[in-house]
Amino acid sequence: MSNRQTTSAQREAIATFCQQRKVRRLTWLYKPLRSGPDADSEAALLIEFNPDDVPSLSTLAAMEEAISGILGRKIDLHLYLREMYLGYGPGESGILYDRADYIEVPLPLDKIAEFCKRKKIRWLAKLPYTLRESVTNYADVDFLAEFEPDAIVGWNIFSMGDELGEILGCSADVHSVGTPGTEWGAKMRKIAEVQYERPH
Q1: Whole-prediction pTM value?
Q2: Which of 26, 51, 89, 110 is the most interior residue, by most CB within 10 Å?
Q3: What mean pLDDT do residues 73-97 have?
């Protein structure tokens, strides 16, 4: 078993542990950050919390020991603070736990439709998972949007995610699906769950 491999029982135990302690995300690092003769860790994890839930250093140390016990090997646990982490990046498929996988997001379709009309969105769909190649994506839910030809998007797409998140009561990101005929756009449309479509 490699240092990152886990059993289904271990993943379930990690999920329960993280939910009880309000962990947002656990992500494998490429390798442990600590070095020297006293470094005995086999792997390392980044741990992320919402700002109001960040625990004390002593609690983090206890969590490191507990996670090492669940996984059956010595783990380095490093606190991830957005835009302030300067260590190694996460692994390519490194997410061990993500809160987004375990929450139910209410979708008030009437408010979503009103939002889409104001933002000149002609088609909006929810992805069944978050677009999370690394810890740089913080959303609990991701949406794909196709805009009207006269819509002014640009950097406004980031504030659209914030506004949609306020409607849903969780963090959200909005991504432009781009030209519908592109390979990526076609692939995303096949798996996305449509929440709004402008009447023809």
Answers
A1: 0.65
A2: 26
A3: 68
